[in-house]
Amino acid sequence: MIIHLKSNVNAEKAAQLAEKAKAVCFKRDNYFVLVTSSKVRALDAELEPHADAFYVTSSDIQLAGTEYMPQKRSFVLGKHPIGGEHKNTVMIAGPCSVESEEQIEQSAQLLKKLDISVLRAGCFKPRTSPYTFQGLGEEGLKLLAKMREKYGLKVITEVRDASHVDMVIDYTDIIQIGAKAMYDHGILRRCGKADKPVLLKRGFGTTLQEFVQCAEFVMSGGNENVALCERGIRTFETKTRFTLDLCGVAYLKEYTNLPVILDPSHAMGYRYGVADLTRACLAMGVDGLLIETHPNPMVAQSDAEQQLTHEQFTEMFHSLQPIAQAIGRKVV
Amino acid sequence: MIIHLKSNVNAEKAAQLAEKAKAVCFKRDNYFVLVTSSKVRALDAELEPHADAFYVTSSDIQLAGTEYMPQKRSFVLGKHPIGGEHKNTVMIAGPCSVESEEQIEQSAQLLKKLDISVLRAGCFKPRTSPYTFQGLGEEGLKLLAKMREKYGLKVITEVRDASHVDMVIDYTDIIQIGAKAMYDHGILRRCGKADKPVLLKRGFGTTLQEFVQCAEFVMSGGNENVALCERGIRTFETKTRFTLDLCGVAYLKEYTNLPVILDPSHAMGYRYGVADLTRACLAMGVDGLLIETHPNPMVAQSDAEQQLTHEQFTEMFHSLQPIAQAIGRKVV
Amino acid sequence: MIIHLKSNVNAEKAAQLAEKAKAVCFKRDNYFVLVTSSKVRALDAELEPHADAFYVTSSDIQLAGTEYMPQKRSFVLGKHPIGGEHKNTVMIAGPCSVESEEQIEQSAQLLKKLDISVLRAGCFKPRTSPYTFQGLGEEGLKLLAKMREKYGLKVITEVRDASHVDMVIDYTDIIQIGAKAMYDHGILRRCGKADKPVLLKRGFGTTLQEFVQCAEFVMSGGNENVALCERGIRTFETKTRFTLDLCGVAYLKEYTNLPVILDPSHAMGYRYGVADLTRACLAMGVDGLLIETHPNPMVAQSDAEQQLTHEQFTEMFHSLQPIAQAIGRKVV
Amino acid sequence: MIIHLKSNVNAEKAAQLAEKAKAVCFKRDNYFVLVTSSKVRALDAELEPHADAFYVTSSDIQLAGTEYMPQKRSFVLGKHPIGGEHKNTVMIAGPCSVESEEQIEQSAQLLKKLDISVLRAGCFKPRTSPYTFQGLGEEGLKLLAKMREKYGLKVITEVRDASHVDMVIDYTDIIQIGAKAMYDHGILRRCGKADKPVLLKRGFGTTLQEFVQCAEFVMSGGNENVALCERGIRTFETKTRFTLDLCGVAYLKEYTNLPVILDPSHAMGYRYGVADLTRACLAMGVDGLLIETHPNPMVAQSDAEQQLTHEQFTEMFHSLQPIAQAIGRKVV
């Protein structure tokens, strides 16, 4: 159950009520919000005089659910508002990893040329082997910050684990929580206290229910600006790297109030399918696209097979606006 | 290995050579084609004088593969050519099952009104419980034939098992092999001798490799007019009925020469997501779409949850042509 | 709902009542049984005077479920009774395919030596490629029959599709329905009229619910002697051929009244793991084991990687009885 | 490639060589070990004079692989040596979560009574909803330490994320890395510097290759005492909580040198199947078993469905030793 407390309830009183109700408590605008287990179906007598409104939900998809808030939430992602009544689909592009200043600057220049506003690149790579490139760490974050200054871009980069979450939050404009870190309470709880939007990627072994509930960790910490990112799930099919779950996207659009962003690059794992899939993702009517492109994919230190060349990306990018128009949206 | 025999090799000789080479043999135009295991990498000395050309392939995706034939195959599906240089995306629509003359006639009238040429509906339903509606059988086939006559439509219906494959082939214009029957040698081999195009659905537990190899059973029987239909695979996600595998579609487009058709209705399993998914499927650039729509889904005897109403279908259908145009295709 | 009609209801009357109730009808001993959809929760007034007893079930797992019949069903599999109060675990062994008389005779001799009573081998192979060995067909069935005569063995072999189901039923002692044919109504319905026990393998993409419901097709045809065989499901893990689902076996033991048989050979796909897995399967307390062993696996025409040599099989076989004893069972 | 440096190479020199070779470096006994990418196939000229031995491996399963070290590794888990030539199967038991002193003391007493040496219980629970019980945190760790003192037990508890990894390492005897934290570099790298054995659980969406590579993160940090724990993977089957992958266990036993521990409780998710599965796991011949049991499962704050009562656990426990004997092992 979600309870909106009256605006005259102060922090101390809200905390008391929360403890009594075994509820999570956070402040929104000028009032406190309590969230109990969804199994609580009736408002407690003690809470009643302090409550402005309360909402019963059928599962622990609470703040993120359309049962609670039917209209799509809206916030600014990079430079453009998404969700709500906005019909923007934000293009987010760049290489898998920051590898060098020269490389990331070429990426920044590509975005500038195409009037794309959000640059993506990883600094802390969640590799599955300790014997491969692990990312440039803080050095990479500094290079991203430099590109932001020099080219007027917004940047998004990934937190790998709780040991460096503060550092990433400091440097980035949008916090990315990767598929492998999606259940990380250390990260989720810290992001709940951050004042930057969060892009939460679905774990490749994660159900939609669990995925949205992980967003609830961030939202119930007080940061409700979360976008859900589908990037492929692991199935028996291994000809492609993962299986992009667009049926799941239809579910997220129907049953949650959060913006949805799609990452076809990781799902496919191979350059050849990315353009077709990007167009399909756009036609689903989503709020953002996350595409990997690298100045020279052949020498990329991670995900070499799936990153588009700048030429391939540019050609694909130019094919998108007509599809967006056909469904009443705009790629920004 | 695929071997094109010289046109002066007669049937008897071809059969002899095939037996010797442990090859499958079929006639194409005025010459015979032999197909051995893909493990055969060099042309046998005895075959050499009789061979016009031979093709080595890296797996048993042979006749269907771009290694053998890089250009997309083309044939008429219903009334329109697909594949090859054609940019047609054929809409195939209708209810899950033929339930009554009144019902199927309403479906036929909807198609006529929207100028859609291929009517789908099942007569032999591969239900998973013996205690539910099993389809009208031959009575249903007769009703489909009646609609073909009365409304000038083409029809497609499913073979459930080998016991009635001849009957279905007699009545239908396009033979559908369903997901659960995809490995059925009795059906596959019989369809290899049929002179009607085959729509082969991917089993929901079937890898892409196995899927295309099942098409090889039909093709190596002599009927090369096979279209591959992705309809969702079974994964850990159960909020939706299946998971539509568009990454797999990208693979099929890249590595096979067969037309590809998509069935988002069965993948999704719920009406609410079908329109978005249909648009995404179309944006992938495929040769056909298979959509379930029923005059009154609430009383449908099978798949009641996923069939669009005629109003929903009509609205969705009218949104498709602009997307098709954006990618240089036409919905027919 | 399952309804036991009174024994004075004759065939004609039973058929009338069945049609009215949209029920499947079969004869058991001296009375008829009707099975309607499980959604029927109350006995129809018209049926009431003719019913001896009726059973409401929570899903279409009806005849096979413990809701209807809590005690394990029992019948003779080969030479030994399984299920019920019997604590027998029947060993079924032999090569993947009948390849030649010499080969299958060596297998028969191995079984004779180890006092194993049921010989397995395939004649109609459900291969996924048309360009590989497809089985010896009827010639193979004849060789199996010969081994039965000569060595006093019982034999089990697989039906691939409905086109040869009668032939297989004629020759075999136990009818095997393979994983790929598990949904084949042509086979299932024909087996429902056969008087030989059926070993039904779970499809590798099949849920437990669907699996047991396929057994209902056979049982509701009148042949209630069905054993369920788990042989591995398809998952994201590809280091092994399939994933043996012993959690699923625990479910089948708890919620169904059918004997359970395990096939670790196909699940594993590699010789090295088969012995450990066979011991684990036995320790689950099941009614049978199906193990592939070949006189010379290196030259086997199918499943060469997973068949044990006769030496490996013999060594493994001798390790089983102590485990069986530890859990109060006996390997026969 | 794994390189054993000569014992006269000091830390500074080893670090230099490691940097040059892009290798991970750790000290074992009196010499340093370098591990480069497995793609390095030939020993560098510069390394040659300093190398005692080197080992080429076919994938990044290096320190953990039988290619490098064919014999099973051995270390003490709790009070008993596992792996190597030891035939011990260590029973680890206790509730899902520490809930109160009274509850955990009842668990400790049960273990004492049955002469079981390792008590398991979680303090930082990786719940998927923020609105449920999250564990007692440090308070729970203190209760576990108290039980250790009072009952002479060893304890194992789980690290949820990197924010409390030091605290858990301080309190526990065996460090558990849970399925959802398996990719967490912050945890893995910290555990590589710990001097306590690590039980690494397989992520439910994790391939065997990735799983073992995660163990490599710990091992290449210098802590080679890692046990691999299979606890069920996520598949399409939802009648049971997960699918226990015993085929995968056969693979781990064949291709890695690490002890293997099995957790059937989480795989099954329901009490009714745990006893059968535990016996099957034991019959696989593994080094440990991890079983959930709770003094009163009905009121458990997490995993209420799958925890055995103390009576059920005791009965099951007494059935194990005969099976262990049958395969030449001992449950300790």
What's the short story on this structure?
The structure is a homotetramer. Chain A is α/β, with parallel strands linked by helices.
Can you give a write-up of this model?
Chain A has 332 residues and is of the alpha/beta class. Chain A has two domains: 2-55; 74-331, Aldolase class I (TIM Barrel, Alpha-Beta Barrel). Chain A is 33% helix and 20% strand. Chain A has an eight-stranded parallel β-barrel with strand order 7-8-9-10-11-12-13-14, surrounded by seven helices. In chain A, strands 2-3-1-4 form a four-stranded antiparallel sheet, with helices on one face. In chain A, helix 3 links the parallel strand 8 and strand 9. In chain A, helix 2 packs parallel to helix 3 (138-151) and helix 5 packs across helix 6. Chain A is globular, with a radius of gyration of 20 Å. In chain A, 61% of the residues are buried.
